[in-house]
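Weekly puzzle thread! Below is a chain. First person to post its structure in C-alpha coordinate form gets bragging rights.
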Amino acid sequence: MAYFFCQNTIPELNHAAAIIRGLTYLLVDQKPELVGHLQRHYNQRGSDIFKGSNVIYELWRTLIEILKDTALPKVYLLVDALDECDSTSSGIFLKLLLHERLKSSQKVKWIISSRNERHVKEYLESPSAAYDTSLELNSRHVAKAVDAFVAFKVSDLTRRKGYTLETRKLIESYLMRKADGTFLWVALVCKELERVSARKALKAVEQFPTGLEPLYGRMMELVRQEDDKEEFKLRLRLLRMVTLSCRPLNLDEIGMIGDFEKELYDSKKYMEDLVQSCGSFLTISKDIVSFVHQSAKDFFSTGQGVTIFPSGLNETQKELVQQLLSLISTSLTRDIYSL
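Winning reply:
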Protein backbone atom coordinates (compact mmCIF):
# COMPACT_ATOMS: atom_id res chain seq x y z
CA MET A 1 0.00 0.00 0.00
CA ALA A 2 1.18 3.53 -0.81
CA TYR A 3 -0.46 6.79 0.17
CA PHE A 4 -0.15 10.55 -0.26
CA PHE A 5 -1.82 13.31 1.75
CA CYS A 6 -2.30 16.54 -0.21
CA GLN A 7 -2.11 19.84 1.64
CA ASN A 8 -2.86 23.13 -0.08
CA THR A 9 -0.80 25.27 2.29
CA ILE A 10 2.46 23.38 1.62
CA PRO A 11 3.87 23.85 -1.93
CA GLU A 12 5.60 20.46 -1.84
CA LEU A 13 2.27 18.71 -1.22
CA ASN A 14 -0.25 20.50 -3.46
CA HIS A 15 0.45 19.36 -7.02
CA ALA A 16 0.19 16.20 -9.14
CA ALA A 17 3.93 15.63 -9.55
CA ALA A 18 4.29 15.46 -5.77
CA ILE A 19 1.50 12.85 -5.58
CA ILE A 20 3.09 10.59 -8.18
CA ARG A 21 6.58 11.07 -6.75
CA GLY A 22 5.37 10.26 -3.24
CA LEU A 23 3.54 7.09 -4.29
CA THR A 24 6.52 5.92 -6.32
CA TYR A 25 8.90 6.50 -3.41
CA LEU A 26 6.78 4.46 -0.99
CA LEU A 27 6.41 1.55 -3.42
CA VAL A 28 10.16 1.41 -4.07
CA ASP A 29 10.89 1.79 -0.36
CA GLN A 30 8.71 -1.25 0.38
CA LYS A 31 10.16 -3.28 -2.52
CA PRO A 32 13.71 -2.10 -3.28
CA GLU A 33 13.97 -4.41 -6.29
CA LEU A 34 11.59 -2.03 -8.11
CA VAL A 35 14.22 0.73 -8.11
CA GLY A 36 15.47 -0.60 -11.47
CA HIS A 37 12.56 1.14 -13.21
CA LEU A 38 13.59 4.49 -11.75
CA GLN A 39 17.25 3.86 -12.51
CA ARG A 40 16.55 3.09 -16.17
CA HIS A 41 14.57 6.31 -16.66
CA TYR A 42 17.23 8.28 -14.81
CA ASN A 43 19.99 6.82 -17.00
CA GLN A 44 18.07 7.87 -20.11
CA ARG A 45 16.98 11.36 -19.02
CA GLY A 46 19.11 12.27 -16.04
CA SER A 47 17.65 14.60 -13.44
CA ASP A 48 15.17 15.92 -16.05
CA ILE A 49 12.73 13.21 -14.97
CA PHE A 50 12.31 15.12 -11.70
CA LYS A 51 11.84 18.61 -13.15
CA GLY A 52 10.57 20.56 -16.14
CA SER A 53 7.16 20.98 -17.75
CA ASN A 54 6.82 17.26 -18.54
CA VAL A 55 7.76 16.01 -15.08
CA ILE A 56 4.22 14.73 -14.39
CA TYR A 57 4.22 12.54 -17.49
CA GLU A 58 7.75 11.24 -16.92
CA LEU A 59 6.94 10.30 -13.33
CA TRP A 60 3.61 8.77 -14.35
CA ARG A 61 5.26 6.49 -16.93
CA THR A 62 7.70 5.32 -14.28
CA LEU A 63 4.91 4.66 -11.76
CA ILE A 64 2.87 2.66 -14.29
CA GLU A 65 5.90 0.50 -15.14
CA ILE A 66 6.36 -0.21 -11.44
CA LEU A 67 2.69 -1.11 -11.02
CA LYS A 68 2.92 -3.54 -13.94
CA ASP A 69 5.98 -5.28 -12.52
CA THR A 70 5.18 -8.92 -11.74
CA ALA A 71 7.19 -8.62 -8.51
CA LEU A 72 4.50 -6.30 -7.15
CA PRO A 73 1.42 -8.06 -5.70
CA LYS A 74 -2.00 -6.49 -5.39
CA VAL A 75 -1.52 -2.88 -4.40
CA TYR A 76 -3.71 -0.12 -2.99
CA LEU A 77 -2.88 3.51 -3.78
CA LEU A 78 -4.51 6.15 -1.57
CA VAL A 79 -4.59 9.87 -2.40
CA ASP A 80 -6.22 11.95 0.31
CA ALA A 81 -7.69 15.46 -0.10
CA LEU A 82 -7.15 15.76 -3.85
CA ASP A 83 -9.21 18.98 -3.74
CA GLU A 84 -6.28 20.63 -1.97
CA CYS A 85 -4.18 20.40 -5.14
CA ASP A 86 -4.46 23.22 -7.67
CA SER A 87 -7.24 22.45 -10.16
CA THR A 88 -4.99 22.40 -13.25
CA SER A 89 -2.54 19.96 -11.74
CA SER A 90 -5.22 17.70 -10.27
CA GLY A 91 -7.02 17.75 -13.63
CA ILE A 92 -3.94 16.36 -15.37
CA PHE A 93 -3.59 13.71 -12.68
CA LEU A 94 -7.23 12.65 -13.02
CA LYS A 95 -6.95 12.42 -16.82
CA LEU A 96 -3.93 10.16 -16.50
CA LEU A 97 -5.63 8.09 -13.82
CA LEU A 98 -8.88 7.71 -15.77
CA HIS A 99 -7.03 6.70 -18.94
CA GLU A 100 -4.98 4.09 -17.07
CA ARG A 101 -7.93 2.89 -14.99
CA LEU A 102 -9.84 1.85 -18.11
CA LYS A 103 -7.09 -0.55 -19.15
CA SER A 104 -5.35 -1.46 -15.88
CA SER A 105 -5.32 -4.85 -14.23
CA GLN A 106 -7.40 -5.70 -11.19
CA LYS A 107 -4.33 -5.85 -8.97
CA VAL A 108 -4.19 -2.05 -8.71
CA LYS A 109 -6.85 -0.29 -6.66
CA TRP A 110 -6.97 3.50 -6.38
CA ILE A 111 -8.69 5.24 -3.46
CA ILE A 112 -9.21 8.97 -3.96
CA SER A 113 -10.75 11.24 -1.32
CA SER A 114 -11.88 14.79 -2.00
CA ARG A 115 -14.44 17.37 -1.09
CA ASN A 116 -17.29 17.65 -3.59
CA GLU A 117 -15.34 19.88 -5.98
CA ARG A 118 -16.98 20.11 -9.40
CA HIS A 119 -13.81 19.48 -11.46
CA VAL A 120 -13.01 16.34 -9.44
CA LYS A 121 -16.54 14.93 -9.71
CA GLU A 122 -16.65 15.50 -13.48
CA TYR A 123 -13.68 13.21 -14.03
CA LEU A 124 -14.84 10.47 -11.67
CA GLU A 125 -18.59 10.40 -12.34
CA SER A 126 -18.33 7.86 -15.18
CA PRO A 127 -19.70 4.48 -13.94
CA SER A 128 -16.80 2.68 -15.56
CA ALA A 129 -14.23 5.00 -13.98
CA ALA A 130 -14.91 4.75 -10.30
CA TYR A 131 -17.14 3.65 -7.47
CA ASP A 132 -18.34 6.76 -5.71
CA THR A 133 -18.84 6.64 -1.95
CA SER A 134 -20.25 9.67 -0.18
CA LEU A 135 -19.03 10.12 3.36
CA GLU A 136 -22.17 12.13 4.10
CA LEU A 137 -24.30 9.13 3.17
CA ASN A 138 -22.09 6.78 5.18
CA SER A 139 -21.75 8.95 8.26
CA ARG A 140 -22.21 5.99 10.62
CA HIS A 141 -18.93 4.43 9.46
CA VAL A 142 -17.13 7.78 9.62
CA ALA A 143 -18.44 8.35 13.14
CA LYS A 144 -16.92 5.04 14.31
CA ALA A 145 -13.53 6.06 12.94
CA VAL A 146 -13.78 9.51 14.54
CA ASP A 147 -14.75 7.93 17.90
CA ALA A 148 -11.63 5.75 17.72
CA PHE A 149 -9.56 8.87 16.98
CA VAL A 150 -11.14 10.65 19.96
CA ALA A 151 -10.30 7.74 22.27
CA PHE A 152 -6.69 7.78 21.07
CA LYS A 153 -6.27 11.56 21.47
CA VAL A 154 -7.87 11.67 24.92
CA SER A 155 -5.73 8.73 26.05
CA ASP A 156 -2.65 10.66 24.96
CA LEU A 157 -3.85 13.80 26.78
CA THR A 158 -4.56 11.77 29.92
CA ARG A 159 -1.05 10.35 29.90
CA ARG A 160 0.54 13.78 29.51
CA LYS A 161 -1.80 15.95 31.58
CA GLY A 162 -2.68 13.46 34.32
CA TYR A 163 -6.50 13.51 33.96
CA THR A 164 -8.54 11.56 36.46
CA LEU A 165 -10.60 8.66 35.15
CA GLU A 166 -13.79 10.74 35.49
CA THR A 167 -12.29 13.71 33.65
CA ARG A 168 -11.09 11.45 30.87
CA LYS A 169 -14.52 9.86 30.42
CA LEU A 170 -16.33 13.22 30.40
CA ILE A 171 -13.96 14.79 27.88
CA GLU A 172 -14.10 11.72 25.66
CA SER A 173 -17.91 11.71 25.79
CA TYR A 174 -18.13 15.43 24.95
CA LEU A 175 -15.79 15.13 21.98
CA MET A 176 -17.63 12.12 20.58
CA ARG A 177 -20.97 13.95 20.81
CA LYS A 178 -19.71 17.19 19.28
CA ALA A 179 -17.21 15.98 16.65
CA ASP A 180 -19.90 15.61 13.96
CA GLY A 181 -17.70 13.24 11.96
CA THR A 182 -14.82 15.69 11.61
CA PHE A 183 -11.29 14.51 12.39
CA LEU A 184 -9.87 18.01 12.08
CA TRP A 185 -12.30 19.34 14.70
CA VAL A 186 -11.12 16.70 17.18
CA ALA A 187 -7.45 17.37 16.41
CA LEU A 188 -7.84 21.14 16.89
CA VAL A 189 -9.79 20.86 20.15
CA CYS A 190 -7.24 18.42 21.58
CA LYS A 191 -4.44 20.75 20.56
CA GLU A 192 -6.16 23.57 22.43
CA LEU A 193 -6.56 21.31 25.48
CA GLU A 194 -2.79 20.86 25.53
CA ARG A 195 -2.60 24.50 26.69
CA VAL A 196 -5.03 23.94 29.57
CA SER A 197 -4.23 22.47 32.98
CA ALA A 198 -5.98 19.24 34.01
CA ARG A 199 -7.96 21.16 36.63
CA LYS A 200 -9.55 23.43 33.99
CA ALA A 201 -9.85 20.90 31.18
CA LEU A 202 -13.55 20.06 31.65
CA LYS A 203 -14.62 23.68 31.73
CA ALA A 204 -12.42 24.48 28.73
CA VAL A 205 -13.63 21.64 26.50
CA GLU A 206 -17.28 22.63 26.97
CA GLN A 207 -16.50 26.03 25.43
CA PHE A 208 -15.75 24.52 22.03
CA PRO A 209 -18.83 24.39 19.77
CA THR A 210 -19.63 21.88 17.03
CA GLY A 211 -18.46 22.69 13.50
CA LEU A 212 -15.20 24.13 12.17
CA GLU A 213 -16.43 27.69 11.61
CA PRO A 214 -17.79 28.08 15.18
CA LEU A 215 -14.67 26.34 16.50
CA TYR A 216 -12.42 28.79 14.68
CA GLY A 217 -14.51 31.60 16.14
CA ARG A 218 -13.95 30.24 19.65
CA MET A 219 -10.21 29.84 18.97
CA MET A 220 -10.09 33.46 17.85
CA GLU A 221 -11.80 34.51 21.08
CA LEU A 222 -9.02 32.79 23.01
CA VAL A 223 -6.40 34.61 20.95
CA ARG A 224 -8.15 37.91 21.77
CA GLN A 225 -8.02 37.19 25.51
CA GLU A 226 -4.35 38.20 25.62
CA ASP A 227 -3.86 40.74 28.43
CA ASP A 228 -0.94 42.36 26.59
CA LYS A 229 -2.62 44.49 23.92
CA GLU A 230 0.62 44.99 22.01
CA GLU A 231 1.13 41.23 21.83
CA PHE A 232 -2.40 40.80 20.50
CA LYS A 233 -1.72 43.37 17.77
CA LEU A 234 1.36 41.40 16.72
CA ARG A 235 -0.72 38.23 16.47
CA LEU A 236 -3.28 39.96 14.26
CA ARG A 237 -0.52 41.32 12.05
CA LEU A 238 0.90 37.83 11.66
CA LEU A 239 -2.49 36.26 10.85
CA ARG A 240 -3.24 38.97 8.27
CA MET A 241 0.12 38.43 6.60
CA VAL A 242 -0.16 34.64 6.39
CA THR A 243 -3.73 34.92 5.09
CA LEU A 244 -2.79 37.25 2.23
CA SER A 245 0.50 35.64 1.19
CA CYS A 246 0.45 33.71 -2.09
CA ARG A 247 2.72 31.04 -0.61
CA PRO A 248 3.81 29.97 2.87
CA LEU A 249 6.44 32.31 4.37
CA ASN A 250 9.47 31.41 6.43
CA LEU A 251 10.21 33.00 9.80
CA ASP A 252 12.76 35.45 8.39
CA GLU A 253 10.36 36.65 5.69
CA ILE A 254 7.60 37.13 8.26
CA GLY A 255 9.91 39.17 10.45
CA MET A 256 10.86 41.55 7.65
CA ILE A 257 7.56 41.81 5.77
CA GLY A 258 5.58 42.17 8.98
CA ASP A 259 7.70 45.19 9.90
CA PHE A 260 8.37 43.75 13.35
CA GLU A 261 11.01 45.41 15.50
CA LYS A 262 14.44 44.17 14.46
CA GLU A 263 15.36 42.79 17.87
CA LEU A 264 12.17 40.72 17.73
CA TYR A 265 12.46 39.15 14.30
CA ASP A 266 16.20 38.60 14.79
CA SER A 267 15.21 36.12 17.48
CA LYS A 268 14.04 32.86 15.93
CA LYS A 269 12.69 31.71 19.29
CA TYR A 270 10.52 34.82 19.63
CA MET A 271 9.08 34.42 16.15
CA GLU A 272 8.30 30.75 16.85
CA ASP A 273 6.58 31.74 20.10
CA LEU A 274 4.53 34.35 18.26
CA VAL A 275 3.37 31.79 15.70
CA GLN A 276 2.46 29.30 18.43
CA SER A 277 0.55 31.97 20.34
CA CYS A 278 -1.93 32.29 17.46
CA GLY A 279 -4.06 29.47 18.83
CA SER A 280 -3.95 26.37 16.64
CA PHE A 281 -4.43 28.27 13.39
CA LEU A 282 -0.80 28.11 12.32
CA THR A 283 1.87 25.44 12.18
CA ILE A 284 5.65 25.54 11.65
CA SER A 285 7.62 22.99 9.64
CA LYS A 286 11.31 23.58 8.87
CA ASP A 287 10.85 27.29 9.68
CA ILE A 288 7.97 27.53 7.16
CA VAL A 289 4.72 28.93 8.58
CA SER A 290 1.39 27.84 7.14
CA PHE A 291 -2.23 27.38 8.16
CA VAL A 292 -3.06 24.08 9.81
CA HIS A 293 -5.71 23.50 7.12
CA GLN A 294 -7.18 25.28 4.11
CA SER A 295 -10.41 25.79 6.04
CA ALA A 296 -8.49 27.93 8.57
CA LYS A 297 -7.28 30.22 5.79
CA ASP A 298 -10.82 30.36 4.38
CA PHE A 299 -12.08 31.42 7.82
CA PHE A 300 -9.95 34.58 7.66
CA SER A 301 -10.26 35.32 3.95
CA THR A 302 -13.98 34.70 3.38
CA GLY A 303 -15.51 33.65 6.73
CA GLN A 304 -16.21 35.28 10.07
CA GLY A 305 -12.51 35.78 10.68
CA VAL A 306 -12.35 38.46 7.98
CA THR A 307 -12.87 40.95 10.82
CA ILE A 308 -9.10 40.86 11.42
CA PHE A 309 -8.95 43.17 8.38
CA PRO A 310 -10.60 46.35 9.76
CA SER A 311 -9.66 48.33 6.64
CA GLY A 312 -10.52 45.47 4.26
CA LEU A 313 -8.44 42.82 2.53
CA ASN A 314 -7.53 45.02 -0.46
CA GLU A 315 -6.25 47.88 1.68
CA THR A 316 -4.19 45.51 3.84
CA GLN A 317 -2.79 43.89 0.71
CA LYS A 318 -1.79 47.36 -0.51
CA GLU A 319 0.01 48.04 2.77
CA LEU A 320 1.96 44.80 2.47
CA VAL A 321 2.97 45.63 -1.11
CA GLN A 322 4.19 49.04 0.01
CA GLN A 323 6.23 47.39 2.77
CA LEU A 324 7.79 44.99 0.23
CA LEU A 325 8.65 47.85 -2.12
CA SER A 326 10.22 49.73 0.79
CA LEU A 327 12.37 46.70 1.66
CA ILE A 328 13.45 46.34 -1.96
CA SER A 329 14.38 50.01 -2.24
CA THR A 330 16.76 49.74 0.72
CA SER A 331 18.87 47.06 -0.97
CA LEU A 332 18.45 47.66 -4.72
CA THR A 333 19.89 50.64 -6.59
CA ARG A 334 19.84 51.82 -10.18
CA ASP A 335 22.65 50.26 -12.28
CA ILE A 336 23.61 47.91 -9.46
CA TYR A 337 26.52 46.45 -11.50
CA SER A 338 27.86 49.88 -12.52
CA LEU A 339 27.41 49.16 -16.21
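Puzzle host: Confirmed. Bonus trivia for everyone else. The radius of gyration is 24 Å.
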